[in-house]
TrEMBL record:
SUPFAM superfamilies noted in UniProt: Phage tail proteins
InterPro entries linked to this entry: GpP-like_N
Organism of this sequence: Raoultella terrigena (Klebsiella terrigena)
Name of this protein: Mu-like prophage tail protein gpP
Domain of life of the native organism: Bacteria
């Protein structure tokens, strides 16, 4: 994957990358735009826990392109049987 394809979330002054799943919805026929990003509970390669709070402002970028700005509506921690 090239740098121009990397999806990142900037929230609380931190840039989070390395998503397991990504969905970004933008359409002239659909309002509001939204996104869903799935990842592990810890930053890849560290013991630092992901800290995202509902109500925080955030920016979603694909490469260097800003595609969405807004607020975190929900943060849903989950455990599944599926291996990463």
């Amino acid at each position: 994957m090239s740098d121009q394809d990397i999806v990142s979330l900037n929230v609380g002054g931190k840039i989070i990358e390395g998503w397991d799943s990504v969905r970004v919805t933008r359409s002239i026929e659909r309002f509001p735009s939204d996104f869903s990003l799935g990842l592990m509970d810890y930053y890849p390669g560290t013991s630092e826990k992901q800290l995202v709070q509902e109500g925080q402002s955030g920016e979603v970028r694909i490469g260097s392109d800003l595609v969405l700005t807004g607020y975190i509506d929900s943060w849903e921690p989950a455990i599944t049987r599926r291996a990463p």
